[in-house]
Amino acid sequence: LNFENRKARVIVTLSLIEKKKLRSLLTKKGRESRREFLAEGVRLLEESIRWHRLPRKVYYCRARSNERLETLINQFDKEAVPIQPISTIELNQISDTLAGQGIIALFDIPQHNLDKAVISDAKMILLLDNISDPGNAGTLIRSALAFGIDLVLTTSNAVEIYNPKVVRSSAGAMFGLPVLAIEPTALVRLKKEENFRVLAADLRGETVDAALSHLKEKDNLILAIGAEASGLTASILKLADIRIRIPHEKAVESLNAAVAGSIIMKELYNRRTVDKR
Amino acid sequence: LNFENRKARVIVTLSLIEKKKLRSLLTKKGRESRREFLAEGVRLLEESIRWHRLPRKVYYCRARSNERLETLINQFDKEAVPIQPISTIELNQISDTLAGQGIIALFDIPQHNLDKAVISDAKMILLLDNISDPGNAGTLIRSALAFGIDLVLTTSNAVEIYNPKVVRSSAGAMFGLPVLAIEPTALVRLKKEENFRVLAADLRGETVDAALSHLKEKDNLILAIGAEASGLTASILKLADIRIRIPHEKAVESLNAAVAGSIIMKELYNRRTVDKR
Fold first, then answer.
1. Chain B contact for A50, CB < 8 A?
2. B255 and chain A: CB distance < 8 Å anywhere?
3. Most buried residue, A54, A152, B82, B258, by CB count within 10 Å?
4. Element (H or E) spanning B220, and its range?
5. What is the three-class DSSP state of B81?
6. Which uninterrupted H or E stretch holds B271?
7. Contact A147 B248 (CB under 8 A)
8. pLDDT in tens, A242-277
């Protein structure tokens, strides 16, 4: 009995209220009502420090500690972020993965607005429409940061940006550029008032080379990527100035949406960086 | 009590032995010992018909039926594939997804060998090394078929090809080209005896344009893609004739492995198809 008791003893350091709050952030409803989200893992949280997007609080598990994790904890400590040690059991209760990396952090959802300040800095925008797979959405955000996109917008039928799987597959890129959900009407206004050209990925479009030849170097661009099966929604496709497709063998109906979007972003990036030389 | 009984009554049409067998295929151990795997969903199984890679047996759920599913069932029937109706509960028991599409099929794992017949047809090979994420592995197989790769090889430290998540994210592409696991020694032999050049994706490599300029049109190629964090294993990297990287902003440490591999495949494909014009 004594032995059993000892095994069952765990260091419980979270209050029930705090645990309940953190667990509610595993759901979309919880994230939207609290305007907070969780990000997990050493690599992801190293990016939050690099981009100075600091969390409200960090939870970490001493039992899972290693040198890299300790370094990260020290960095958060220097930045005066509150740090709370928790047990492995507690970590598993607030994590959406089975094999966590011993650290999880609570962030405020940034209250970006599509205002002049955000827009006037943006020359290249990626629009995620209809992208329901969280892995694809996160990967597209990662490629966006890699290929010099200034701003990522999502429509209401795309996966929610602060879904833990989106956060994870962005590999921290979401800390490096503004990502915000918009209404379709905002897009129409953006195109008209701010003079953006809309480039839409579409299986019936022109080839990459042909499509990009219509662009001028100074053009402000919105690249719209839709779902693999259904493509872009009709209202977004209607806004398109140029439709673009990636030539490939007919053996495959379409490319993965994250792959297709990333290839087009890479072509746009090449074009601009080569032009500068 | 009567009402309860009626609710509990389901059409059980699978024998316990068959159900146990199918459930064992949800594990790597089960797939490897039985040399069988499951593929699920309408779109995926339409591809199996298109590529004439027919299953041993099809299980489907009448309650989930629709026109597209009925058409598919009729096609399997014409091809003399045994068709077994099962209940929704049974379908959920043998599926690895929560929201199945009403159809699942049992396939033999093809017994490819790296023999002369497979090799002599292959000019372009994709090698997946260290790729542990099943979504990335499946996406790379899909891009491989799209960009004219003839053969996909995987090393023993990559995810197993018949993992349901790999099958699903390949979107049926795995029915369209041979995919097989090999030993590292086989790769050394392949390079020497069959005169392949090895192109390795590596963050310290040359840019895409520079790397591809070293290639001749007639070259037989092996493109090796490794994991994002750790890269290629040392033994594979040692075999590389050319190391290749995709230029991008320093804001991001690396691209997603499926994105990086697909971009390089697309560049190789462009080069060959443009050369043909």
1. no
2. yes
3. B258
4. strand B220-225
5. coil
6. helix B257-276
7. yes
8. 999 999 999 999 999 999 999 999 999 998 886 554
Across the interface, of A142, A169, A255, the residue whose CB is closest to B252 is A142
pTM of the model: 0.92
The first and second tokens of residue A266, run together, are 């890479």
> Is A169 part of the contact surface with chain B (CB cutoff 8 Å)?
yes
Contact A25, A34 (CB under 8 A): yes
Cα–chain-centroid distance for residue B30? 18
Flag the least confident range among A198-202, A224-228, B79-83.
Answer: A224-228
Question: How far is CA B227 from each of CA A134, B159, B261, rounded to the nearest angstrom?
Answer: 20, 11, 10
Residue A36 β-bridge partners: A108
Q: Which residues does chain A have within 8 Å of residue B228's beta carbon, measured at their own beta carbons?
A: 171
CA angle B251, B257, B263 (to 5 degrees): 85
Residue A193 token pair: 């008032």
Tokens of A14: 């979270």
Sign of CA dihedral B252, B226, B44, A265: positive
- Per-residue model confidence as pLDDT tens digits over B180-196: 988 878 888 888 888 89
Of B10, B18, B26, nearest to B61 by C-alpha is B10
Q: Is the ipTM of this complex over 0.85?
A: yes
Q: Which chain B residue is nearest to residue A170, measuring alpha carbons?
A: B256
Whole-number Cα distances in Å, A63 to A89, A103, B164: 11, 11, 33
Measured CA distances, B167 to A34, B41, B135 (Å): 37, 11, 9
Residue in this structure with the two tokens 């309650």, named with its chain if needed: B63
Phi/psi region, residue A119 (left: phi>0; alpha: psi -120 to 50; beta: rest), is alpha
CA torsion B7-B9-B14-B18 (nearest 10°) is 80
Smallest Cβ–Cβ distance between B251 and the set A176, A255, A258 belongs to A176
Q: d(Cα A276, Cα A220) in Å, to the nearest integer?
A: 16
User: What single DSSP character describes residue B129?
Assistant: -
The string of DSSP codes covering chain A is -HHHHHHH-----S-HHHHHHHHHTTSHHHHHHHTEEEEESHHHHHHHHHTT---SEEEE-GGG--HHHHHHHHHHHHTT--EEE--HHHHHHH-SSSS--SEEEEEEPP-----HHHHHT-SEEEEE-S---HHHHHHHHHHHHHTT--EEEE-TTSPPTTSHHHHHHTTTGGGTS-EEE--HHHHHHHHHHTTEEEEEEEEEEEEHHHHHHT--TT-EEEEEE-BTTTBS-HHHHHT-SEEEE----TTSS---HHHHHHHHHHHHHHHHHHHH-
On whether the CB atoms of residues A181 and B260 are closer than 8 A, the answer is: no
CB contact under 8 A, B262 and A255: yes
Q: Give the pLDDT of residue B276.
A: 52
